[in-house]
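Exercise (ungraded).
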Amino acid sequence: MRITLSVIKADVGGYVGHSAVHPQLVETIKEFVGEEVKKGILIDADVLVCGDDTAIVMTHTHGVDSEIVHGIAWRAFEKATEVAKKLKLYGAGQDLLSTAFSGNVKGMGPGVAEMEFEERPSEPVIVFFADKTAPSAWNLPLYEMFADPMVCAGLVIDPKMHDGFTFEVLDTYTGKAVKLSTPSELYELLALIGTVERYAIRSVWRNNDGEIAAVASTQRLSLIAGKYVGKDDPVMVVRAQAGFPAVGEILEPFARPWIVEGWMRGSHNGPLMPVSFKNATPTRFDGPPRVIAAGYQIAEGKLIGPRDLFDDPAFDKAREQAQLMADMLRRQGIFEPHRLPSEEMEYTTLPKILKKLEERFYELEAPRKAVEDPVEKHDID
Ligand code: F6R
Ligand code: MG
Ligand code: MG
């Protein structure tokens, strides 16, 4: 059976502030998509929450980029926005950047990760969902899951994975993408995806047979809206087992927290803390950024689950480490490298402050000469 798994997420109102989603919003969305399942338009649907964001997980046979499916998600978020407005929740409807749906939610605010595949005899998938960070937060773990044999033993041990995986990398500034095949182009891949403010992995494919392995939402809200409207709080879907990384290999990168962009006002670096569903509520300095992992078995398109995969003592140490990293970064206060570099602040409200001071700057020293081009300066054989 060929099915599509679509995850569409949005922040349509926070409770309290930007820390969580009110249960009435979740109920409203659940009821709405439940009706579509009853009508047979969707095979199944589930709703996940991380921080102030809600993700609708849907299975169906309409393929990716389906107007029907995107329309369902859009209307569900509109309904939830009505409730959010009534309760005067914070930032009601904030991610619905347009007043009318025009066939596809892409570029309209919500984040989307969807993939179409032939359901295997057993189809384990994991939906990752993060709050207070950006899509490039997935760059490091996707590299480790699909290209680092020190994390994914299957790359060495499972013959189906020996040919490696191809990564589709999006330049979020130009909208252009490039496909890089690993292991042969591993260093080119890393050269790009280490630049987290610009490049984000969009999808991963198995080289052996071209099967889709992972897909991530890569929308950059600030670039869409042209002003700061929050970080993009991404989702990602990863297929597991039998020729894909095992569930444990997929979760392993999260056992060692790393630094991502986001946190307070989307303007700080901070650790990504793996948490249970219950603890996916950013508080300290609006964070630290959090990620949940929802595991499903798919059976004839039905979503069996979710299992709350980070609700496990094996991730307690990662949480502890993340808090230590948070302490260290918080010590920097408003200073870099805790606060993001100025180029990254361009899409926040900081330019307004700089504008205010523009007229008051006067010449104190001769301007610095343009930096010499290091490539021209040194003889390179
Ligand atoms: C970050 C985030 C929060 C807000 C912060 C200020 O993604 O959502 O950290 O940026 O709480 O929010 P406003 O500007 O709405 O008062
Ligand atoms: Mg928010
Ligand atoms: Mg959020």
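Further reading is listed at the end of the chapter. For now, observe: The longest strand covers residues 290-299. The CA atoms of residues 43 and 60 lie 5 Å apart.
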